[in-house]
Amino acid sequence: MADRVRVCSPDDVAPGQARRFDVGDLRVAVVRIGDDFYVIGDRCSHEDFSLAEGEVWESELEIECARHGSTFDLRTGEPCSLPATTPVPVFDVEVEGDDVWVVVG
After folding, report:
1. Superfamily for 3-104?
2. Buried/exposed 60-93: b ≥16 CB within 10 Å, e otherwise
3. Alpha helix locations (H) across the chain?
4. Where are the domains positioned within the chain?
5. Does pTM top 0.85 for this prediction?
6. Measured at the alpha carbon of residue 62, what is the angle toward residues 58 and 67, in degrees to the nearest 5?
7. Cα dihedral: 52, 54, 60, 61 (round 10)
8. Chain segment 16-51, per-residue pLDDT in tens
9. Alpha carbons 97 and 9: distance in angstroms, whole number
10. DSSP assignment, residue 43?
11. Contact 47, 67 (CB under 8 A)
């Protein structure tokens, strides 16, 4: 059964930025593009490196791993460039008032 967990406030993530949060044992990157939020696993599938430290490509809806340059689609987790070839998990996200919730499990 899936759990809905509050991860932050909308103001905790600036537009065009990503920020890492821990949800239990799960490490996620919350990405904000305008008023839209995306939640993606925060470990690059090519090498265990934080995606939240990378650049957000707003018009492409992608995030770039700062270590080797792989980009990942924020909607699907699919890698969009090498060297990564394996997707990272994505999570449903809900924004209600002053809360950003992620659905995990």
Report:
1. Rieske [2Fe-2S] iron-sulphur domain (2.102.10.10)
2. ebbbbbebeebbbbbeebebbeeebeeebebbeb
3. none
4. 3-104
5. yes
6. 115
7. 0
8. 999 999 998 999 999 999 999 999 999 999 998 999
9. 8
10. B
11. yes
